Amino acid sequence: MAKKITERYVALIILTALLFNPPIMSIFNSTELILGVPMLFLYLFAAWTLIIGLNAYLAKRLLMEQFSVRERVAGSDADG
Predict the structure, then answer these.
(1) Where are the beta strands (DSSP E) in 15-78?
(2) Rounded to whole angstroms, what are the CA distances from 35 to 23, 47, 61, 78?
(3) The whole model's pTM is what?
(4) Is the pLDDT assigned to residue 79 strictly greater than 70?
(5) What is the rounded CA–CA span in Å between residue 74 and residue 10?
(6) Which residue has the higher pLDDT, 77 or 64?
(7) What pLDDT, on a 0 to 100 scale, did the predictor assign at position 80?
(8) Residue 74 — pLDDT band, cuts 50, 70, 90?
(9) CA distance 55 to 8
(10) CA-based diameter of the chain, in Å?
(11) CA distances in angstroms from 67 to 35, 61, 74, listed in the order given
């Protein structure tokens, strides 16, 4: 399972590199305002929030997996 989470972290790094790539960001660089805020700023904050949220989710999954492995190891030590 740890390998799966590691692969997801690699995918998250690639996603981050793509989201903050200048050609992608230039799509949102316009004079149009949404609720008085430039589109580029909204895009940056939305992408930033997405990356932080996904990172928190993966960190929680990794922590839960490490906790369950420790419980299994502690349980097998108690049995023997």
Answers:
(1) 33-34, 37-38
(2) 24, 18, 36, 60
(3) 0.78
(4) no
(5) 31
(6) 64
(7) 54
(8) confident
(9) 10
(10) 69
(11) 44, 10, 10
SS3 9: helix
pLDDT tens digits along 14-66: 999 999 999 999 999 998 999 999 999 999 999 999 999 999 999 999 888 88
36-42-45-48 Cα dihedral, nearest 10 degrees: 180
Tokens representing residue 40 in the block: 């580029």
Phi and psi angles of residue 67, each rounded to the nearest 5 degrees, phi first: -65, -45
Residue 66 one-letter amino acid: Q
- Tell me the one-letter amino acid at 34: I
Q: Are 20 and 47 in contact (CB under 8 A)?
A: yes
